[in-house]
Amino acid sequence: MTEEPVDRGYGIDFGLRDPFGNHIRVAQMAQG
How far is residue 32's CA from residue 15's CA, in Å, rounded to a whole number? Predict the structure, then answer.
C-alpha cells in the first residue's frame, strides 16, 4: 500500500502500486 486510507468527504480511498509499477486507486463511496 502506498497511501493509507483517507476520508475525503465523498468516501474513503487509498492508493497502491502493483508489482509492475502501475498505480491503482481504490475508493468506497459514502452512503447518503
Answer: 24
- Per-residue pLDDT of 1-32, as tens digits, reads 688 999 999 999 999 999 999 999 999 999 97
Q: Is 28 helix (H, G, I), strand (E, B) or coil?
A: strand
**2, 16 in Cβ contact below 8 A?**
yes
b/e 5-30 (16+ beta carbons within 10 angstroms → b): eeeeeeeeeeeeeeeeeeeeeeeeee
Q: Where are the domains of the chain?
A: 1-32
